[in-house]
Design brief:
Helix content: 40-55%
Strand order of the largest sheet: 4-3-5-6
Oligomer: single chain
CATH topology of one domain: Rossmann fold
Structural class: alpha/beta
Number of strands: 9
């Protein structure tokens, strides 16, 4: 059996898994917020259904525990259920604990990807060649060479294939070469999550440009992966190891101020580091200090924008809420304030803006049929307001939306909110 947390941090305090799942009263409020229940109408694909399956596993009342595997594996981990639940039952974490109990080898894929993420130089070298072959129109050759089949590299190469143009440089190269990013006297620290680092460097560069204009001198944290992939796919020990490295590196930095990231999924995970150390008092205290400094770019930039002039281009713009921004961090007012300021009357509220687009990390690769149905619904909503630009804040959302828009509604493009703010500031400043 894969390692489990055993104790979860809940709205009602730190609880053992059984106590946490027992908080679910099966009231059903969660069902109308759950994308997989709305898509399927199946009770076992609802939050309360999944909670009860885990409870039955713990009570030994499930004759074949493996029968719960499909129900748990199809959870998007979007957290919409917890947002509407009166008791804020942490269904996503309960589902993850159930997955870890079911599959002893669940952590294999995460461990292989984690091994690459622990070696950023090697990963960067492999991705540079994969992107180079893609730009040269030699994707078939890349497949024959087996780049996508290298342990852990496949999802990143597949994600990059959805981009209109493969990155020419990786983010960390530009950050390291930026002489303005210095630790001494820095008022903020940029955290380069894996998505911007290896797939969407334009997002990271836009965030840094906007932070410089709004907050002055800053620095960046040359840190490893946040550990979310390991956490979500079963390897708690590896997730904890990544967390320790990130905590140690921020503690060692003389830079002050917030640690700001621009992938909402990763930022939400950074904010929940304390849950990884509930049984280790010293590390728990350090994790709490670390997480207290973490901010999402979609909360930090709008706040810093204030009354500053900022005008985004485009006739009609809208906003998609990343699940881990809205549900994981409670961030939804700040990006709307920024969009309203930049777009004025051309901003249109997106119907079902808080509904998952079906990206959800690797979910789109594992459950393509469910993901596609959710994506079609999202794109139809975007088209319904005539949007030409849709802003989002999670790497998986941006990649999923880019794929769906290219396929179903090519008149629109997906960008990170940081990109709109950065461009808006440049236009306003002349």
């Amino acid at each position: 059996m894969a390692e489990q947390l055993g104790v979860l941090r809940t709205f009602l305090g730190d609880k053992k898994l059984y106590d946490a799942v027992s908080q679910c009263s099966r009231c059903g409020y969660c069902e109308q917020a759950c994308p997989t229940y709305l898509e399927s109408g199946r009770e076992d694909r609802s939050p309360r259904g999944r909670n009860q399956l885990v409870r039955m596993m713990l009570e030994g009342k499930l004759a074949d525990a493996a029968s719960a595997e499909e129900a748990l594996s199809t959870c998007l981990l979007c957290g919409a259920c917890s947002s509407v639940c009166p008791a804020k039952v942490p269904t996503a974490d309960i589902v993850l604990e159930g997955r870890r109990a079911l599959r002893a080898d669940e952590s294999g894929a995460a461990r292989r990807l984690g091994a690459l993420l622990e070696r950023p130089a090697l990963l960067s070298f492999l991705l540079r060649w994969a992107y180079r072959l893609q730009r040269w129109g030699l994707a078939t050759l890349a497949a024959r060479l087996g780049l996508g089949r290298l342990p852990g590299l496949g999802p990143l190469v597949d994600a990059g294939a959805h981009l209109d143009e493969a990155p020419r440089r990786l983010l960390r190269e530009d950050l390291a070469a930026d002489g303005d990013l210095r630790e001494e006297g820095a008022a903020w620290v940029y955290y380069p999550a894996c998505g911007p680092s290896y797939v969407l460097p334009r997002v990271g560069l836009a965030t840094v440009r906007a932070l410089k204009r709004l907050l002055g001198r800053g620095s960046w944290l040359d840190a490893p992966c946040c550990g979310l992939a390991a956490y979500n796919y079963g390897d708690v020990a590896q997730a904890r190891a990544f967390a320790r490295k990130n905590i140690e590196r921020l503690e060692a930095s003389p830079a002050k101020g917030p640690l700001i990231g621009d992938c909402s999924s990763c930022v939400a995970h950074l904010k929940t580091y304390p849950q990884l150390f509930l049984g280790e008092p010293e590390w728990l205290a350090r994790a709490e200090r670390f997480s207290a400094r973490v901010q999402d770019a979609v909360e930090a930039l709008p706040r810093a924008l204030g009354e500053r002039a900022c005008a985004a281009p485009g006739p009609v713009n809208t906003l998609h809420d990343a699940c881990r921004a809205r549900n994981g961090q409670g961030i939804w007012k700040e990006p709307r304030a920024a969009m309203g300021k930049m777009c004025g009357n051309s901003y249109k509220e997106l119907p079902e803006a808080d509904q998952c687009c079906g990206g959800a990390g690797a979910f789109a690769f594992v459950h393509g049929d469910i993901s596609e149905e959710l994506l079609k619904r999202k794109v139809a909503n975007i088209a319904s307001v005539g949007a030409r630009v849709v802003a989002a804040s999670s790497t998986s959302c941006l990649l999923q939306l880019a794929r769906g828009l290219k396929k179903y509604y090519p008149e629109c493009k997906a960008v990170h909110l940081s990109e709109l703010i950065s461009e808006g500031l440049e236009r306003a400043d002349g």
